[in-house]
């Protein structure tokens, strides 16, 4: 142990963050210590304030400090299109792309027999309820292209069959800038199945 127990505790806590192992956590801790007033104290205050004020949106499940969240309360959003995502990180990723001006619905995970996640463990009933209103015309299933993600998408398609909304899915295939030689067989097969006229 190179530092006191407080420093070691900080290293251990930072090491639990995604993408930070023990070595990266030590470097981050040292960086924070060296910039105590400019970085460490404001970071500690921001963490405490966020921990005290963060809430889940009662409409979509997004995490924010206001209720409903900033997306759901934005009057410029198209409420007729709901984009369904697995978790908040997926919502943030789509928002960064600035390509969706509708609203969202966060499931809170995906169906997984191995992990014991069943339909009742996810926010599926509230999605069906939202999609069944006359206002909603399209539900976009933005699941990850994994076996569990596709299983969840199929299940949701069946559950949404009674809603008047059109159910669509994200396209899968060759990424922009991707070279065919470096793609896996599944991606190439999906791209060939999803081909369209030019």
Describe this structure in words.
Helix 1 crosses helix 2 (22-34). The chain is α/β, with parallel strands linked by helices and 198 residues long. The N and C termini lie far apart (63 Å). The chain has a domain at 78-169: Dna Topoisomerase Vi A Subunit, Chain: A, domain 2 (3-Layer(aba) Sandwich), CATH 3.40.1360. The protein has helices at 5-14, 22-34, 36-53, 88-97, 124-131, 147-159, 185-193; strands at 55-56, 63-64, 78-85, 102-106, 138-141, 166-169. The chain has a four-stranded parallel β-sheet with strand order 4-3-5-6.
Which properties best describe this structure?
single chain; about 200 residues; alpha/beta; Dna Topoisomerase Vi A Subunit, Chain: A, domain 2; two-stranded antiparallel ribbon; 6 strands
Strand content: 5-15%
Structural class: alpha/beta
How is the biggest beta sheet arranged? 4 strands, parallel
Strand order of the largest sheet: 4-3-5-6
Shape: globular
Range of helix content:
40-55%
Helix and strand succession?
Answer: HHHEEEHEHEHEH
Mean pLDDT: 92
CATH top-level class of one domain = Alpha Beta
What is the gyration radius calculated from CA atoms?
21 Å
Query: How many individual helices?
Result: 7
User: What's the number of extended β-strand segments?
Assistant: 6
């Amino acid at each position: 142990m190179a530092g006191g127990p407080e420093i070691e505790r900080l290293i251990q806590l930072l090491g639990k963050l995604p993408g930070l192992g023990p070595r990266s956590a030590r470097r981050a801790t040292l960086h924070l210590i060296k910039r105590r007033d400019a970085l460490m104290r404001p970071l500690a205050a921001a963490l405490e304030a966020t921990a005290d004020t963060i809430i889940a949106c009662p409409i979509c499940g997004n995490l924010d400090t206001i209720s409903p969240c900033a997306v759901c309360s934005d009057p410029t959003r198209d409420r007729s299109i709901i984009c369904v995502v697995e978790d908040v990180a997926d919502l943030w990723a789509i928002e960064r792309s600035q390509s969706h001006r509708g609203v969202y619905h966060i499931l809170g995970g995906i169906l997984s027999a191995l992990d014991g996640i069943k339909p009742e463990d996810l926010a599926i009933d509230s999605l069906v309820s939202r999609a069944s209103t006359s206002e909603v015309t399209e539900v976009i299933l933005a699941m990850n292209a994994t076996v569990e993600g596709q299983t969840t998408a199929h299940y949701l398609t069946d559950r949404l069959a009674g809603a008047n909304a059109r159910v669509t899915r994200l396209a899968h295939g060759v990424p922009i800038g991707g070279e065919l030689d470096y793609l896996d067989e599944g991606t190439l097969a999906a791209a060939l199945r999803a081909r369209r006229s030019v």
